[in-house]
Amino acid sequence: MVTRTYDGGSGDVDHATVGSGRASHRRPDARIAHTIAAALGDARDILNVGAGTGSYETAAHTITAVEPSLALRARRPAELATAIDAVAENLPFDDGRFDASMALFSVHEWPDPAAGLREMRRVTRGPVLVLTCDPARVRDFWLYEYAPDVLDIEARRYPRLGELADALGGTVDIQPVPIPLDCTDGFNEAYYGRPELLLDPAARQACSAWSFIDDRARQDFDTSLRHALGSGAWDAAFGHLRHRPTYSGSLVLLRATV
């Protein structure tokens, strides 16, 4: 995929026009936040790379945020630290500057993820965290039956976990992150047991992969899923997910230490 640059950012998504539904559909989930906090341990001075609008930043840490997209920097809440205009591949900090660093749902948008992670390792004394999706598991989700192009795009965008681990170096633990049934952070798998919610265009728009397909493909998805729900076909195949408290999908947390 050809990397495109928009609004001062470095990734493959035009954040100035994509994601208008994020405020209501991409709210940090407390259980995912707890997993991140546990992985950070007692670190206090934290670098957040590809920080976006500040999801999962908390007052418990001193946060230095890096975000190359002007649109996303502008949407950060006033109570959060102002984000620095910089890219992961060229961080403007001294070696070992931070107790810990994290990249949450962002590494797949970087032009050179390996270079960005090496930079994070350079400026970090303690753990480096990467919340991402395992591309080998992306297509296992039921959505692949109704919107294969979306998940094919997702699988191509996410770097392989082995490549990320090699770039981070040291000891890398890879932890699956369970997704709760009522997850408030509306990435695709967050709707594993609530398929009706993906019929809302705003919910889809909050997940960047949908921006890579055209209107006809989005309409085809809407038609096919509505038909499957109305006929009972979806529930016959996947209805057990409506009552599963958590889903083990492609979401993982990498934690690298030296």
List the helices and strands and how they pair.
Layout (H helix, E strand, L loop, with lengths): L21 H4 L4 H11 L4 E5 L12 E5 L3 H5 L25 E5 L8 H10 L5 E6 L14 H10 L3 H8 L2 E6 L2 E2 L20 H5 L9 H17 L1 H6 L7 E2 L3 E7 L1
Keywords:
alpha/beta; six-stranded mixed beta sheet; single chain; 258 residues; 15% strand; elongated
Give a description of the structure.
The protein is α/β, with parallel strands linked by helices. The chain is 29% helix and 15% strand. It contains 9 helices and 8 strands. The protein has helices spanning 22-25, 30-40, 70-74, 113-122, 148-157, 161-168, 201-205, 215-231, 233-238; strands at 45-49, 62-66, 100-104, 128-133, 171-176, 179-180, 246-247, 251-257. Strand 3, helix 4 and strand 4 (128-133) form a beta-alpha-beta unit. It is elongated, with a radius of gyration of 18 Å. 42% of the residues are buried.
